[in-house]
Amino acid sequence: MKNTILVVGSVALDSVKTIHGSTDRALGGSAVHFSLSASNFSPVKMVGVVGQDFPAHFSRFLSRRNICTEGLQVEPGRTFHWVGEYDKDFKNATTIATHLNVFQQFRPCLNKDHARCGVLFLANIDPDLQRGVLKQARTSRLVACDTMNYWISLKRRSLLKLLPDVDLLFVNEEEARQLTGEHNLIRAARIISKMGPDAVVIKRGDSGAMLFYGGETLSMPAHPVEKVVDPTGAGDTFAGGFVGYLASAPDWKNFAALRRAMAYGTVMSSFSVEDFSVRRMGRLSKTEMCRRYEKYVSALRVS
Amino acid sequence: MKNTILVVGSVALDSVKTIHGSTDRALGGSAVHFSLSASNFSPVKMVGVVGQDFPAHFSRFLSRRNICTEGLQVEPGRTFHWVGEYDKDFKNATTIATHLNVFQQFRPCLNKDHARCGVLFLANIDPDLQRGVLKQARTSRLVACDTMNYWISLKRRSLLKLLPDVDLLFVNEEEARQLTGEHNLIRAARIISKMGPDAVVIKRGDSGAMLFYGGETLSMPAHPVEKVVDPTGAGDTFAGGFVGYLASAPDWKNFAALRRAMAYGTVMSSFSVEDFSVRRMGRLSKTEMCRRYEKYVSALRVS
After folding, report:
1. CATH number, domain at A291?
2. Count of CB contacts below 8 A, A vs B?
3. How many CB atoms lie under 10 A from the CB of residue B57?
4. pLDDT digits over A248-279, tens only?
């Protein structure tokens, strides 16, 4: 149980358009992207909600990838549906429609088995719900958390109440700046760490990621991707590789482990953007994963 | 002579304003920033032009830093003077005035000694002048070159004539995209390498740098800087560390050497932005340089 990861977050159907094509109601959501990445390292249990329209083959697909979907409630109504479009540079996503549907009433409820998981990942949902989950969870080796601009501006107080109980926070550049009012990322990360989390990871897209831990900063580059097809879920896939690796490590509170976690997060997210939805992650083999990881870390080894 | 670097470029007086203060007619210019970085690794000879107002103590300062200024012509008139201001995020520099002065008539002329240098760095000047220098230079182990958006749009044909004779080209992200019409940096670098250079380095500011060589891509992160004071010359300082290290290496055409060059370029530029003008580079010790280099490369060593 020590290595088992519980993830609580959104399960969605995404209709996405990019210069390389489009999808209609493809599998998505923060909990899904995270799980498909993390489950390469550790067993994952997912808590979320879907509607009656959620295709059964999506649940079977998740189960085949080492993800327990017993905590996936099916509620009357339709599944959370996001419709979005990316510009040609993949810099900006335009939301065309957000149908929260059954997700609007989501009140995560953990059973005994969920509550005992060693590692908890609070994917990007309302910080009040995240706190509710934390209260239900018993002991955890590691509590990791993600959030977004929406909660930082509209539920700031709730978020600040949550952070002292979080070990590891993921934010992107804009969120780090928004949360702290500080442009410089080192200073922003230091301010965030004073809000509670021992480790702060700032995701920077194709500029890589920055880790702040124990007063030290570590920057790692993105793994260069020649053809980005769909960046949806790249951040959650990064967190999945990061937290997934740490769950499998004997001890996460050291730079050697955190450095490997950064590398795994980077490598996993580089796969996820190569195809629409979860297609690339769905067909990812351990061999491909290890090969790209080795390539990535050996390229950074300056002799 | 094999390791001696000849640099041909601008020598300027810069009046710069940032949120941390300002300078008035401080030492600057591409050849200066490059030389102060490269001279930590290899002897540097500088070819450029200044006016009669150029302070003698600036020339003495350069000489003390292992830079031969015999090729610095003094012409009647005033020195190239740039007046600029950075916004608080250091993303955009606004040019308030560019007084080319004596630099407008600059026609670089190499003596026998200059022409025999093993390594040549063509700093950012008119590509026709860069070609003129190349014709005068005899043999070179390595020809490196920088350019800018202005020449890419206004002297594109001259630049394309120059590139087949260049081994190593430095551009920033926008320049790479402008030169190729390709947004993806890997694809852009591949197109540039087909224009001539064996190695292409794309400088990405606080997102690090990307190297393209032998069909392979290497990304390295920036060294995080907590307080950027003045980013003027950071790109030339990067090139100085890169080319300076390669000039001191027995053979530059391999990934191990190029990787170290990337790391040295990164580390040198991280120093240069910490103070105005050349102040930080002027007081940089070998010990500080080696310490930060070791810190940078060991942080990237994923075990």
Report:
1. 3.40.1190.20
2. 81
3. 9
4. 999 999 999 999 999 999 999 999 999 999 99
